[in-house]
From TrEMBL:
It comes from the Bacteria. It comes from Galactobacter caseinivorans. The keyword Flavoprotein does not apply. Keywords: Signal. Residues 1-27 form the signal peptide. GO terms for molecular function: catalytic activity. InterPro entries: Endo/exonuclease/phosphatase. This is Endonuclease/exonuclease/phosphatase domain-containing protein. Residues 69-372 form the Endonuclease/exonuclease/phosphatase domain.
Amino acid sequence: MQRSRAAVLAAFTSAALVLLAPVAANAAAPSRTAMEPGAATNPSIIVATADAGLSADEDGKVLSSLRSGNDEAAKDLAKSLQGARPDVVVLTGIDVDSSAATVDVLREQYLEKAQDGTQPITYSFVFAPQTNSGVASGADLDEDGTVGGPGDALGHGAFEGQESMVVLSRLPIDNSAVRTFDSMLWKDLPGNHVKQAGYSSLVTSTLPLQSTSLWDVPLTVGSSTVHVLATSATPAGGSEAADEQRHEDQLSFLTRYSSGDASLKSIVDDQGRPGPLAASARTVVVGSLGADADQNDAGSSSVQSFLDAAGAGTVAPSWGSDRSRAAAPFVWSAPLRKLLDDSARSTRIGVEDSGRFDYVVPSSEMRTQRSGMAKAATDQPTGVSSRLVWVSLSR
């Protein structure tokens, strides 16, 4: 029986990581950041993202596991963050309840405790409001003949807060200037594709653009402000027929919002403030973009269009380098080299949709110093292995 591309990739992953791990370990030691002594005059910041692998099929299950103090995914994630030491990190793929207890336990019992000899790390500033994940829509969005269930939520989820996201920061968050976009309707985006999605007029009158959310979280970095645009886009190849159109429009909105596009002057955030960011704002888009630009799958072209507009072609950290493979005592065949290249650039390994889904994309006003990856976590039920992506930036 012929094996799938993802299965073959997963089979070679262990070998690839053995070869490339020394390079990745070196990459995960970024230089001085804004939170360290002597950096105040010309501060740099390390911005990171990862799929936390902390989501379960039942509400409260992740919280219970975390409270045991022995959650392996949380330990892996903590070790990764303690090694890379980002100043701000956007975690996706995490169940977040209304009180953010999951986030508190993660910080207190894992991040603030040494993992295998690493130094604890403290994130004093947290942004973890509820998102659209798992919120009932009251409509049969997945057209299975029944109203209710994960496919009928405003954002796919079996309960509110499933597969949500959180921002952890060592830098102060300007809470008075935070903007969120949970409530903005899909139909209100200029040039939207909601009609192609095939929903009724009743559904389109209530369906938001964001399946999770888009957050504009301003951080104080020295005397400047850096806007972290946290996102967890709809997977373009998801179970619902409309996922690809929704994903395309989410990335279109993100592109236009971050660039100050005048076409968004009429949009309003959850706080009642209109319009996009100023074109001159320092921004970093952080999180999951919902597809891999290089795999020619659903959503690939939308991700590539976003990256092209952001001018981010050179910011593409990987788990290794050609130099590490060239030094090997044998020659890789072209197919195996491609498999290892795919493995090195992927941020999630072990499922059919393995690939680079997680990004840190700075605006042109920010200067990229270094970037890299580190192992983040392995989701025990699914076996999906994720990687932390980090980028060191300066003003």
